[in-house]
Amino acid sequence: MNRAIHLVHEKIDVFSGFLQRVKFRELFLYWVGMAVMFGLAYYLLSFTPGHGLQQDKMLLTPSFSSFISAQYFSFITSETVGYGDIVPQGFSRFLASLEGFVGFLIFGVVISKLVSVKQEHLLQEVYKLGIDEKTNRVRSALFLFRKDAQQFMDRLYRGVGTAELKDLWVLLQSLDEKLTEAVTLTCQDQAHEHSSDVMRIDSLHVELIALSMTSSMAKLSDLIAKLEQLKSTWTHPRILQRIHSITTTTAHFVKVHEQKYLSPKLQNRLQALSTLSKELAHHAQQTPKLHPTAEI
Question: Where are the domains of the chain?
């Protein structure tokens, strides 16, 4: 019993796969071919008394006009319309019932595919809106980082104490989180690269995010340059660890997308981002680490 149910499920899956692959033109050709074949069958049955078609209370006899009438009856029957001007007799009744059922099934498949196409279009629109919203959210968060970083730089004239170290670490943590979110958003299709059900994020969104990331990394470089200029003791191990995480995330973003997109403009964005990331990582490695006398 279980084996029979399993076989039924397999057949249903095969049929569903066929319906997904078949195109509207192919369905139309199937329908026309079916109607023509059934029409030919009705005409051949006119050679057998009592099993052909009846028109105006007279059985159709083999002739060219009977062939045309048989084709007309077949197409009308396959459309599940039926006007009653031609009536099947004998075995033709069984064929007419079968043709009506198959025609009804074909039209059902057509309607199902129309609904499926419309649904897929709506899903694509919803997905695009979601991508737009997430992209804008990431860019807004990176803009807020640059604003906070500028405010932090404006008050550095007082020097860098424990409070400033904590603020700097929080600032770097927020940037790291937003960069991670950007990588997750733009690289989410890597795990589904062989799936056609996942819409790929386009190069425009990647370019917008790369531009925001480049501006944010440039602002971070300016911030560190400001700290160096003031000869501030800012190189706490946790801060350097956070900078390492930021540069690693940025390098991964660049590595993924420079292989995917060939747009010269986007390649220039990625190259600029890569340069800033490498310079920042090199600077953090060369900077002497501050002994962690205070927790941050």
Answer: 2-116, 155-286
- Residue 87 backbone dihedrals phi, psi, to 5 degrees: -120, 130
Q: What is the DSSP letter of 100?
A: H
Let me know: does 86 contact 54? Beta carbons within 8 Å.
yes
pLDDT 10s digits, 30-88? 888 899 999 999 889 888 888 888 888 888 888 888 899 899 999 998 887 878 888 88
Alpha helices in the chain (DSSP H): 2-21, 24-45, 64-78, 91-154, 162-186, 203-229, 237-258, 264-286
**DSSP assignment letter at 47:** T
User: What does the pLDDT look like over 237-296, one tens digit per residue?
Assistant: 888 889 999 999 999 999 888 877 767 888 888 899 999 888 888 877 766 665 555 555
User: What's the distance, CA 292 to chain centroid?
Assistant: 47
Smallest CA-to-CA distance from 265 within 221, 211, 185 is with 211
Number of Cβ within a 10 Å radius of residue 244: 15
2-116 domain in CATH 3.50.50.60? Answer: no
Q: State the burial class of residue 286 (Cβ atoms within 10 Å of its Cβ: 0-12, 13-18, 19+).
A: exposed
pTM: 0.59
